Give the backbone structure.
Amino acid sequence: MSVEQFLTINQLLFNDKPPIVAVHTQLKTAISEIELNEQTQAVDTTIDTTIKGEAKDELIATTLRVAAAMSAVAAATSDTRLRMIADVSKTDLTRMREGDFSTRIRTIFQAAMAVAPELLTWGVTQADIDSLDTGSSSFIQLAPENRNIKAVSTQAKSEITTKISETNALIRNTLDPLMLPYKTLNPTLHGQYLVARATINTAGSHPGKTDNTPTPAV
């Protein structure tokens, strides 16, 4: 049983104690805010990361096919510049930073456009070349979207941590002293509160808890 549940179950006993009622209201509000941020934090970036990865893999495959045809044209025409632009490997493209990756794709696209008729001989169509342009643009758009989702999730986690810390402080500094008189007035009730209160400490020291997020006291 949590502290908030304890207060809800016994709220009739505290109706004549405005300070305790006020704490109860604050706890319910805090729970709502924490749950809302937990939902935000739970936004799964796996799908977005997978989509981005698949888009990059497809773009790399097309780029390598176009580059191979460009290399053939360069060899046939002794075009050193074209050969150097087409000199790219899957490993190179995979390891590139997002900005460098997009720039390299654009460079290959522009060079391919200049020799598009010759590339047909090597199985590369205008549609293949155009896909480098559209694919590069789409990839650039996917990157910041993915980062934004992660940023929102990180912010939500930070807000959860702050709210939990504030709530624990409210219980420790305000509710604990308010409940202390019940140790004499109503020992059973006070004992129940201590049981609910002890749940916080037990959860906080759980062996499976490895992150730095404070344990909810609500």
